[in-house]
Structures are given as structure tokens and as C-alpha cells.
Amino acid sequence: MATPNPELIAALNQTADRLALGAKFQWGHYGECNCGHLAQTLTGHSPRELLEFAQEREGEWWQQARDYCDTSGYSLHKVIGLMLQTGLDLEDLVHLEYLDDPDVLRAVPADAQPLERNRREHAVLYLRAWAQVLEDPSSAPPAPRAEPHPVGML
After folding, report:
1. What integer pLDDT is reported at residue 42 of this predicted model?
2. Quick one: 130 exposed, middle or buried, by C-beta within 10 A (0-12, 13-18, 19+)?
3. Structural domain for 101, as ranges
4. How far apart are CA 138 and CA 119, in angstroms?
5. Is position 85 within any domain?
6. H-helix segments, the chain
């Protein structure tokens, strides 16, 4: 998970606020999806620029994150590099696109789950929960522990 720091926490909250206030949201658009909105906040690139960068090579955000190379020369990899400098890691981008980081989800109210990746209000919930977890890791209850199998029950 991301390294907690004030810049990243502020960016997550700012992105959530912008989405909550009605910024254009399209899950299938590189600049207007979950990752695209956070990229806008962290890098200042417009949705159109992010879309143009993404068209240099195939792949969704999660694929770009998995294939990331800081020396590739691809514009979107430069954007990802800037995002990583704020404390994110590559897995954060994969989880953000699908709203599925288990640590973040534990901070999302149970009655709001399951989250759907292509719903604005779910992206807002996820971003706010993520900021909360980074600000106060104790706000996410610990993951349930698997119970060991009793001897003889295997």
C-alpha cells in the first residue's frame, strides 16, 4: 500500500471532492476513470492528455501499471512515475481501477459494499476510505484471521 504522506492524502480527498461535485466520470476513458482522476490531481494533466498518452500503447491502467518501466519513454509511464513519486505503488493503481484493495475496503462501510468500479459514488467512497486509512491506519479493522483446522478435522 501507498506510503502515507500529506500530499497523497490531500490528493485522494481532492479527487474525491471533484468527483462528488460532478466532474465528468467515465470508467472506460483513460482520463476520466478512477486512475485517470487521481492522475489529473497528482500530475495536472487533462483527461484529453491522459487519453492521448494511453494511445501510445495498448492496455488498461492496470496493464500499464504491471508493464511500467521508468525508462520506457512512454508518456503514460512518465505519468505513472510521477504518481509513484507521491508515495503510491504500482499495486495501488491496479486496486484503484477496480476499487478492490482489501485494506481500503475494510474502511468502507459494509452497507456500501460491494463497490462497483464504474460508479462515481463508489469511487468517491473508496478514495475517501483510502485517504482515511493512510491518515489513520487503525481506522481499517484488521483482516480476519483464518481459524486453524482442529487436529483430526482435516
Report:
1. 93
2. buried
3. 6-139
4. 27
5. yes
6. 6-20, 34-43, 47-54, 61-66, 75-84, 90-98, 102-105, 120-135
